[in-house]
Design brief:
The chain is mainly alpha-helical. The protein has 18 helices and no strands. The protein has one domain. InterPro entries: DUF5009.
């Protein structure tokens, strides 16, 4: 009997063991939730890197190129000009990368709320509110407060374009299962491509990719009651929103991977890096029938930008979140926390004047082109100081 009792006691876990197992499970669960809900430093840093070129980074490169006359800097400065129509430059990537990063954040914001039991209707209303606010802010940016007739008011805008493209992707994210998201991305891109291949403006064949001959340009200038950006075309026109929505949706796919428990962090980076040459290859092949045109948001251009966006996301995630080397990126993180402030501020506030007021005396002691370098650096510094002060006061302009 004693032997039997000893055997039974050894086979049954003690209360202490139960507590230890429970505590371990609770700790693992808490760590899992913390990891899923925590903010990605790399996301803010990459967004800040993207916006840096708007707050004077491009002007600084141009000034340095003029001062040094180094060929590689002069070549780099050329990348900070938009392609006139067909083609691709680094400057063409800034807008698409921002859209992509808005999608990367979706699993952390919308996905987290869905897991907490938020209703899809409530999240849908929130998305519509965000879209509406961005459209309205875009109209204000375009001078809409002048209250001119609709035919003289430009409704399409960068902020409105972001809002609608994000809204389309967000609705797909809310109502579609993750395994179908890639199919949605493909469908949006193919749908836009097929539309432009089949139909052109009157008296033009399908597959015409010119401002006056494309279906997108025709819709902008003839079927919409408001003012367009250019004579024949609007770079933030309606049809382009269809293909552009693939960028935040593609970003959401990447965000789901980064937020998932498995695979391991370094394996996630490998998955992203493996996707990059595939995307570049698809874009290159597609450009044979549909050229890279940023102002039309052609499907080939969108895939090309997605490849660059995935590559940059992988590199920033590896260095900052996986390896933990983030302090160098603090400069960019401060910028990335307030993107809407930056975009509206460049329109409303004279930061060039402010930087010249603060640093003009110093710059005046030097001749051109060094003076231009100092003023460009001063503009960046003025912006950064304002954004840093806003961060210290927890002031963020968000919709």
């Amino acid at each position: 009997m004693p032997d039997t009792l000893l055997t039974n006691e050894a086979a049954e876990p003690s209360a202490v063991d139960d507590i230890q197992v429970t505590e371990a499970l609770d700790k693992a669960s808490v760590e899992k939730e913390e990891r899923k809900s925590k903010r990605l430093r790399s996301l803010d840093a990459l967004r800040g890197f993207d916006m840096f070129w708007i707050v004077g980074g491009s002007a600084l490169v141009a000034a340095l190129a003029k001062f040094t006359q180094w060929p590689w800097l002069e070549r780099m400065a050329q990348e900070f000009q938009h392609a006139k129509w067909v083609g691709f430059t680094f400057y063409d990537l800034i807008f698409p990368l921002f859209l992509f990063l808005a999608g990367v954040a979706m699993p952390y914001s919308l996905g987290g709320k869905l897991e907490q039991g938020a209703s899809r209707l409530r999240l849908t209303l929130k998305v519509f509110k965000r879209v509406l606010l961005l459209v309205l802010l875009g109209i204000v940016y375009n001078g809409g407060l002048a209250l001119k007739p609709l035919a003289e008011t430009r409704i399409c805008s960068v902020l409105g374009f972001i809002g609608v493209a994000y809204g389309i992707a967000a609705l797909v994210f809310i109502y579609s299962k993750p395994r179908f998201h890639i199919a949605w991305v493909i469908g949006l891109l193919l749908g836009y491509w097929i539309s432009l291949q089949l139909f052109g403006a009157p008296f033009y064949e399908g597959g015409t990719y010119t401002p006056e001959g494309s279906l997108a340009g025709y819709v902008d200038r003839n079927l919409l009651p408001w003012k367009v950006y250019a004579l024949h075309f609007d770079p933030e026109g309606v049809l382009g929103m269809i293909s552009a929505a693939a960028l935040p949706l593609g970003g959401a796919i990447v965000g789901q991977l980064l937020r998932a428990d498995k695979p391991r962090d370094w394996q996630k980076v490998m998955v992203l890096l493996l996707a990059v040459p595939i995307l570049f290859g698809i874009a290159a092949l597609w450009s044979g029938s549909m050229p890279f045109i940023k102002k039309m948001w052609t499907s080939s251009f969108v895939v090309h930008c997605m490849a660059w966006s995935v590559l940059l996301t992988a590199v920033f995630y590896l260095v900052i979140d996986v390896l933990g080397l983030w302090r160098w990126s603090y400069f960019f993180i401060i910028i990335g926390l307030n993107p809407i402030t930056i975009y509206l501020g460049t329109r409303i506030i004279d930061f060039w004047g402010a930087s010249q007021f603060l640093f003009g005396g110093l710059a005046g002691k030097y001749e051109q082109p060094l003076q231009g370098v100092i003023l460009a650096a001063a503009y960046c510094l003025t912006w950064w100081m304002v954004l840093w002060a806003m961060h210290r006061k927890k002031m963020y302009l968000r919709v």
